[in-house]
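N-acetylneuraminate lyase, Anhinga rufa. Tokens?
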Amino acid sequence: QINLSVIRQYVDYLVSEQNVKNVFVNGTTGEGLSLNIQERKQLAEEWVRQGKDKLDHVIIHVGALSLPESQELAKHAAAIGASGIAVIAPSFFKPRNKDELIAFLQKVASEAPVVPFYYYHIPPLTGVKIHVEELLDGIKERIPTFQGVKFSDRDLLDLAQCINKNEREEFVFLYGVDEQLLSALAIGADGAVGSTYNYLGQKTNLMLQAFAKPDLALARKYQ
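Tokens:
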């Protein structure tokens, strides 16, 4: 059973104790795919409500094995004022190529036509190993709201190719393997969405500051 009453306290803790001002709701660590659709909606609503005027962004993961469920969650996220939505690839009947994957993503994104859309790339869990670099060609024409990628894979070559292709800086790449974040930053990642920043946010912010100076020796210490 979900406990909505603690979310207000959680938001205050993230902001005041960890200097974390962006959240990713109903993702992997949040066990979103283990919840029913009503529970996911309730959590999304409460995070948006409690994050108002405190958090900069509340991105809701709306991926599901069922396309209609994912579309319903996307429409709901738009209605409650989410800052963005994210979707993983379907993991049972998997897309066989980039065109099938983009077609799936487009059907979800179209239900929230003004909400920034992110592809949640996590092949260790979905088994979908289509390189993100392949997806970038023409994706903006198919999904006008496409904003970027939550890149949760250790394949830094694919990430580097994405960033090289992103010459006009149309997209953002948020890295999702916490223990490799410094390497991803060196390649050009824009930020991170991870499973440890809720309690290691302060140290991660110190690493980001050291990297920006740049003081790589200090950044390595915090990594």
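The radius of gyration is 17 Å.
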